[in-house]
Amino acid sequence: MKKILSSFAVVFLISANGFAQNIPVDASVKMGTLPNGMKYYIKKNTLPEKKVDFRLAINAGSILEDENQRGLAHFMEHMNFNGTKNFPDNKLVDFLQSIGVKFGQHLNAYTSFDETVYMLPVPLDKPGNLDAGLKVMEDWAFNATLSDEQINKERGVVLEELRLGLGADKRMQDKYLPKLLYKSQYAERLPIGKKEVLENFKPDVIRKFHQDWYRPDLMAIVVVGDINVDEVEKKIKDNFSKYKNPAKPRERKSFDLPNHKETLVAVETDPDATNSMVQFTMKDTEAYKPDVTVEQYNQSLVENISSTMLNNRLRELINSNNPPFTFGSVYHGGTYARTKEAFQGYAMTKDGNQLNGLKVLLEEVERAKRFGFTQTELDRAKSQILSNMERSYNNRDKTESSMLVDEYVRSFLEQEPMPGIAWEYEDTKKFLPSVTLAQTNDVIKKMVKDDSRVVVITGPKKDNVTMPSEAMVLKTFEEVKMADLKPYEEKATIKNLVKPFKSEGKIAKTETDEKLGTTTWTLSNGAKVTFKKTDFKDDEILFTARSLGGSSLISDADYNKTQFAYPALTEAGVNGFSKSELTNYLAGKQVSANPSVGPLTEGISGRTTQKDLGTAMELVHAYFTGLNYNPDAFNAYKEKQSAMLNNLTSNPQFYFSNEHAKFMNQKNPRFIGIVPLEKEWANTDYKKAYDIYKEKFANAGNFQFYFVGNIDEAKFKDEVLQYIASLPSTGKATAFKDTGYRQLTGDYTKVYKKGKDPKSMVTIAYSGEAPYNEKEALALSALGEVATIKVIEKLREDESGIYGGGARGGMSKVPYSTYNFSLQFPCGPENTEKLTKSAIAEIQKLIDKGPEQKDLDKYKEGEYNDNKTQLKDNGYWMNALAKNQLDGSDKYDILNYQEKVKALTVKDLQDVAKKYLTKNRIVATLMPEDGWENAKKDETKPAVSKSGVSN
Predict the structure, then answer these.
(1) 633 vs 404: CA distance, rounded Å
(2) What CATH topology corresponds to 748-927?
(3) Sheet of strand 806-812: strand arrangement
(4) For residue 221, what are the contacts with CB-CB under 8 A and spacing of at least 6?
(5) Which residue from 880, 53, 45, 47 is spatially nearest to 537, judged by alpha carbons?
(6) Cβ distance 133 to 53 under 8 Å?
(7) Judging by DSSP bridges, how do beta strands 921-927 and 327-334 pair with one another?
(8) Residue 931: its pLDDT value, please?
(9) Helical packing angle, 893-903 and 774-791, nearest 10°
(10) In 483-570, which residue ranges form alpha helices assigned H by DSSP?
(11) Could you give the 3-state DSSP secondary structure of residue 718?
(12) Residue 88 and residue 85: Cα distance in Å, rounded?
């Protein structure tokens, strides 16, 4: 899908001769076109250092498939990982893993209606890696081998991916798409394709697709990273210019979403649907054309301001004590087709309330259309847009290559302007003051239409829920037109979030750690503040505050009454201000802060910028001292959560996770489910949760605060003394406790039945108590990565039985010392027994022989690659600093990680496999409800006499 007004900056400039000025192109990007028509975009960018991001963008997707090729654009994407000229068979993934590129996490691709894009980040720490990355790009573009053997092997993998998409959403989508994509090619060319085609196509059919569409004049290569631009340009010219277009190339047609006079309505239900939704689409009359002139860019900004103001109104409704829906939004932007934009809106509602949700959306649009917006709303929206742009501009020299490559891909595929952030920001500042209410009001009138409308309503099929008819939907449009609406009433604005006061707080002690680059202040109220100044981002400050204890200190009965209420507490607002008033106050400021009460800690986490640090500190102070109590706000939150969660048990995957979690925690009275459903909400005590929160946050002396980012120490010190050193403290220290409850251990096989689709899930897990050992913890983590490599090789590449899957392992120190190792994969029900045996056999090989050295080396290279990037990330540092407070781990672990990974041996991994993967194995399988010969009874079969549960 093309951009949805993602660029904000606009200025209307008229040149001396009176013609509109074109949007400039970022001069830091080297662009060119080879003689064969292939385009290239190259930019030097040093974040992250010694890395390069490649993209191969092909202006061809499923929309171009012939009838006998449905699904083969996507299949072709798969085949580029299964044999090319320089990387035959499955050697490509093997090679890339050997240089630190992780399959799926780093290395990936996607196919959509109109395009296919390949993604490859490559570390440049070894000579030859740049050339290797370019060779992969060249092979992906032109050198797929497409052997019969590999095509036939990959059928099973693609069919497994198709299987993953089955379910209630797919069944409803199949019914409403013909109306949403009315009389268009898009309705007939979903990228995943048709099962019968994928199963039966002849190899020559996909070869023809490749020959027709994988050609230079439909391609662009994008290279952004720590590179020499001129060197890369020469290599591209030398290696890619030799490829030719077909003598008679097929026309690359564009396709449209046709307009229509009537309003099309689709109302679809399914017994397994998990939520109720409504969406409307009002298609533009004219075909979409990308912005070229500054004036057009200007108009996009005005549209964005108008949508922002509308969504601010909808947000107020959502945050009210009587919300009409759980979530709702409107925007003007892209549709499935590149050639068509539309004014669109959607909402998630309670079951049976979709028609009212549609009515509220349309009423707010109609209100804006009739009466316009207010000056305060316009000023707030301008502030929001400028603030977002300012943050990007301030961090312009620390933008990740992965963000830049995607922008250049959009420029090639969709002709999105790419003037660069400096131009955008400067022109935004110039233009925003000139935008008037008349302009924004006019935009709404133009976007709202009476024709080319589509309404889609979906939800669970229930006996006690009546869905609206088409006539009722059409009547709603007419009723809204005639409704007696009042102009929007502007809410009072917050002048001061925290009333001015004089802080008596002081810094009682200062400690520095030169190795970590941190300073820690112990304040007069007992609170500790640790901060690390970094230059990873030029304008980013992350923070978290933690106190030990959490819900572990609460009785079982109180825990069960409050565990689901804590996320609702902030819905009441702070210091007498509602959540809506608080949200409006924060509009235009880069501030977020979220308090929480977790199993072992309570705290606040958030982010801000240098400019807005004071506001962030105000908010932190308010959450400690001024959280409102408002049962109506809690009930509104409960209603919204119920609308989202009450039908989750209809989803087979959720049912499987929830029921298996209950099985594993059967001796734990504190476990009552993954999420709250009707019974849990009925037992929830908001007042008790509020009182527990107030008690925990009344003792700031028990908290340690962590700040990481580009901190101005003098300004930071002032804010800390004002807003943290002044917090109340009881002087009482707390720590979390071990409740004594344990998950089930032992050897078990468990089968769950849910769902009508031929979809299964298998989980093989090992866990239990064991003394924490740092080296073993790292070895178990490495074993999980190695096992993932082997499972993908065996179950996906060799047996074509899964699309994806993986393993993970590790150890935990708190609240008690445990080990865990799990392997999970989705598959067809008919293959569960065979693939489970194969997966267990791969684990047994790790036990008997240990991993192959080459697979351990792949893990190490991937970890080195990731860690070099993580060490330049504020969030990574903040989590590492806070970890020591929770579990007492070595605070210098963050500096020694690569050294410890390097020291791992094959024997280390085999030793933990022998020690931890030979007992306490629990195999859980999800099966459909009916019709599968190998479906097992839903029963537990203990293989040992004692479960190992302790209290």
Answers:
(1) 41
(2) Cytochrome Bc1 Complex; Chain A, domain 1 (3.30.830)
(3) 748-753, 921-927, 760-769, 818-827, 806-812
(4) 38, 39, 40, 41, 54, 55, 56, 57, 137, 141, 236, 240
(5) 47
(6) no
(7) unpaired
(8) 58
(9) 60
(10) 556-562
(11) helix
(12) 6
Low-confidence spans in the chain with pLDDT less than 70? 1-19, 931-951
Task: Pull the structure tokens for residue 43.
Answer: 């930019």
Q: Using CA atoms, how far apart are residues 510 and 528, in angstroms rounded to an integer? A: 10
* φ, ψ at 776 (rounded to 5°): -65, -35
Which pair of tokens denotes residue 617? 């500190």
Integer CA distances (angstroms), 852 to 609, 849, 859, in order? 47, 8, 11
Burial profile 779-817: b = 16 or more Cβ within 10 angstroms, e = fewer: bbbbbbbbbbbbbbbbbbbebbbbbbbbbbbbbebbbee
- Cα-based distances in Å from 725 to 502, 546, 693, 705, 708: 11, 15, 20, 11, 19
By DSSP bridging, strand 276-283 and strand 453-460 are antiparallel
Q: What CATH topology corresponds to 507-723?
A: Cytochrome Bc1 Complex; Chain A, domain 1 (3.30.830)
Contact predicate 587/327, CB 8 Å: no
Pick the CATH number of 37-240 from 1.10.287.3510, 3.75.10.20, 3.30.450.20, 3.30.830.10: 3.30.830.10
Instruction: Return the pLDDT at 106.
Output: 86
User: Is the fold of 264-397+413-482 the same as that of 507-723?
Assistant: yes
Strand bridging mode 806-812 / 818-827: antiparallel
40 phi and psi angles, rounded to 5 deg: -140, 150
Tell me the two tokens of residue 175: 């019914």
Cα dihedral 393, 374, 332, 381, rounded to 10, equals 20
Q: Where do the domains of the chain lie?
A: 37-240, 264-397+413-482, 507-723, 748-927
| CA of residue 623 relative to chain centroid, distance | 27
Distance from C-alpha of 57 to C-alpha of 77, rounded to nearest angstrom: 12
Query: For residue 439, is it left (φ>0), alpha (ψ between -120 and 50) or beta?
Result: alpha
| Total-model pTM | 0.94
Q: Where are the alpha helices (DSSP H) in 849-925?
A: 853-870, 874-887, 893-903, 906-916
- 623 neighbors 698 (Cβ within 8 angstroms): no
685, HSE (Cβ side, Cα atoms, 13 Å): 12
Give the span between the Cα atoms of 337 and 847, in whole angstroms.
52
How many other CB atoms are there within 10 angstroms of residue 340's CB atom? 23
> Would you say 886 and 546 are in contact if contact means Cβ atoms under 8 Å apart?
yes
Which segments of 629-787 are extended strands (E)? 703-709, 748-753, 760-769
Write down the pLDDT at residue 103: 86
How far, in Å, CA of 358 to CA of 473, rounded?
A: 8
Q: Which residues are bridge partners to 688 per DSSP? A: none
Model confidence pLDDT, tens digit, residues 582-611: 999 999 999 999 999 999 999 999 999 999
Helices (H), 565-651: 579-586, 613-625, 631-645
Six-digit token string for 533: 């100044």
φ, ψ at 545 (rounded to 5°): -130, 135
CA atoms of 761 and 755, how far apart (whole Å): 12
DSSP string, 337-390: STT-EEEEEEEEESTT-HHHHHHHHHHHHHHHHHH---HHHHHHHHHHHHHHHH
Q: Say how many C-beta atoms besides its own lie within 10 A of residue 883's C-beta.
A: 16
Tokens of 417: 């302007």
In whole angstroms, what is the distance from residue 846 CA to residue 861 CA? 20
The highest-level CATH class for domain 264-397+413-482 is alpha beta
Burial of 907 (0-12, 13-18, 19+ CB in 10 A): exposed
Which helix (DSSP H) or strand (DSSP E) does residue 783 occupy? helix 774-791
Give the position of tokens 């050897």.
Answer: 747
Q: How far is it, in rounded angstroms, from Cα 922 to Cα 822?
A: 9
